[in-house]
Amino acid sequence: MQSAQKLELALTLVLIWGLTQSLVESRRWQKSVQLKLHRETNHSKVMESFPSQKLRLKEKLSTTNELVISSASASDTSVARDNLFNSHNTEYYVTGSFGSPEAQQVTLLMDTASANLLVYSSKFVTESCSGHSGYSSSESQTYQANGTAFEIQYASQDVLKGFLSTDTFTLGDLSLENQTFAEINSAPAAMCQQSNYDGILGLGLVQIALGGVKTPLENMWDQGLIDEPVFSLYVNRNASDASNGGFLLLGGSDPTLYQGCLTYVPLSKVAFWQITVGRVGIGSKNLCSNCQAIFDVGTSLIIVPCPALKIINKKLGLKEADKKNGVYIIDCSKVSSLPNVVLNIGWKDFTLTPSDYILNYSGTCVSGFSSLSDCNGTQAMMDDGEDLNSMWVFGDVFFGAIFTLFDFGLNLVGMAPKV
């Protein structure tokens, strides 16, 4: 009798899970606002960008509590389907605009590991950040002063400073009224010199939003601009097609862009887009079981713990001598003979082939795997005490192979192989 009851309970749970999956999947057929992605073709700064990317990622994950928000005035120095660009398969940009009636167009870095909207002020661009575009509140009729000052103190001792402002923000055909954002008037020199963007579009959850500011995603949903509280990413890494970098889809998904049905998994922690991965393997080697992973489209590579990186590099025939600018260079002629990497997520296997995880920059091939530290035993911690060096981070190498949907209503992530 007891065995029969257990079987009945198991079948009931399977039925409930199946119905839930069907319900969630049916919602994804809602019409989405599709923003087309485009590519840039200048490859001069590709290799130099990797170290700064990893430093920025480490700072995002480990210094959340170091954000300082104040009610002081902005001048108080004592404060303790629009265009998305793919820069060499390393960073993805969207074109947005601020203010009205004349839209002030800027290029924004997409970032799923942060949740705020940030943009350079026009005064800062003129004085300290030439070559970029900025926002001028004096040129907008819909600007609302806020003045709450802020600063982000990074572990590298660099500081990002500015103040909050409110205005109309437009992304594609969506115009968000009363969107509060951070207007940057001081930033690390490297942010201007080594980047192509004028600000950051945070696509993370409100739990990590600076100062509890309502995120652009929340405003889209609250203002009735999207049908469902979701967004999706389809990344096209076809280097031969400079005009098509993929799509950012707001409010739904497009089943023509992926194979089969989406596999949904719940967030393991409601802060970053973080899930539990059942297993990662390369060839016959197991790299991790029940490991934690964060999705970050603002990071180019897949960041892995040091023990896993050592196994991967051995399988790929890489040594420390092959390392340059924090990444590993591999002979392009060997790529076709490399093993697949398999990610088991939500009881489904997702395969990354060598062409998925090896980046080819005009004949220079780079491994898509790296570590956050130099693997010398130094331990970095997240704010909740979790070892940062044990975390997996799925960057653009992952998105290049897997269509991904983010549900900020149900706190789920859905995945399927791209078409």
From TrEMBL:
<feature type="domain" description="Peptidase A1">
    <location>
        <begin position="92"/>
        <end position="416"/>
    </location>
</feature>
<keyword id="KW-0645">Protease</keyword>
<dbReference type="GO" id="GO:0004190">
    <property type="term" value="F:aspartic-type endopeptidase activity"/>
</dbReference>
<feature type="active site">
    <location>
        <position position="296"/>
    </location>
</feature>
<dbReference type="InterPro" id="IPR001461">
    <property type="entry name" value="Aspartic_peptidase_A1"/>
</dbReference>
<feature type="active site">
    <location>
        <position position="111"/>
    </location>
</feature>
<keyword id="KW-0325">Glycoprotein</keyword>
<dbReference type="GO" id="GO:0005764">
    <property type="term" value="C:lysosome"/>
</dbReference>
<dbReference type="InterPro" id="IPR021109">
    <property type="entry name" value="Peptidase_aspartic_dom_sf"/>
</dbReference>
<dbReference type="GO" id="GO:0006508">
    <property type="term" value="P:proteolysis"/>
</dbReference>
<dbReference type="Pfam" id="PF00026">
    <property type="entry name" value="Asp"/>
</dbReference>
<keyword id="KW-0064">Aspartyl protease</keyword>
<feature type="signal peptide">
    <location>
        <begin position="1"/>
        <end position="22"/>
    </location>
</feature>
<keyword id="KW-0812">Transmembrane</keyword>
<keyword id="KW-1133">Transmembrane helix</keyword>
<comment type="similarity">
    <text>Belongs to the peptidase A1 family.</text>
</comment>
<keyword id="KW-0378">Hydrolase</keyword>
<keyword id="KW-0472">Membrane</keyword>
<keyword id="KW-1015">Disulfide bond</keyword>
<dbReference type="GO" id="GO:0042600">
    <property type="term" value="C:egg chorion"/>
</dbReference>
<protein>
    <recommendedName>
        <fullName>Peptidase A1 domain-containing protein</fullName>
    </recommendedName>
</protein>
<dbReference type="InterPro" id="IPR033121">
    <property type="entry name" value="PEPTIDASE_A1"/>
</dbReference>
<feature type="transmembrane region" description="Helical">
    <location>
        <begin position="391"/>
        <end position="413"/>
    </location>
</feature>
<keyword id="KW-0732">Signal</keyword>
